[in-house]
Amino acid sequence: MAAPESLRAPRAHRCATLTAVSDSAWPELRAAIASAPYPTALLSTDDARAERCLSTLGITTRSWLGALTRYSGGLLVDHGWLRVNGGGTDTLPDVATAADPATRMLVIAHDVLGGQFTWMPAQPDEPPTVHYFGPDDLGWQDLGTGYADWLSAVLTGSLTRFYENLRWPGWEDEVSTLRPDQGIHTWPPPWSAEGQDLATASRKPIPIDELIAYHHETARQLDQQ
């Protein structure tokens, strides 16, 4: 899949053109959501907001990203552990709003511990791939996969293994009570030697933006040492 226009150059598109396709990915994506092996909530969307977001991205609903953006506010996957950005809601930003113009990357999802998934080129002029910033190592990892393949893996069970070292007994009940704009701050933090066992760590909900900013600022400070 080609990079969105917003990753290359700003350009406005009429949403009618972007949605008037005979082979929309939405039926396929909706079926994948319905068959996910863990609880996955499809958030409702405001049509006007979703259409603006799709126009900003400059992609059609033939793509999984375009379909999710136009026809949903986003996804809460695996009891809400992973929050996938779509057309946006009051508590979950749309993909265009969550984009980082400084790095030309799309923030496509975040997890409850403040980890981030982005879609961006690893090198200039290369196709974009999904990258993950982990709260346990404060570093970026190129997952080497495109958006559709990444989301397909998420919806077929990949989160269980991906997060196996970052969960604790009873996490499902704890996480499912949170809003998409909340995360769980743990102390000691998961990137410290003392914070590896989240079952014994102190845990409390805080705004997810604060949690993400805390992890990135800590990573910046450690890089300067």
Automatic annotation (TrEMBL):
InterPro entries assigned to the protein according to its UniProt record, in alphabetical order: DUF2625 (IPR021239)
Pfam family, one: DUF2625
Name of the featured protein: DUF2625 domain-containing protein
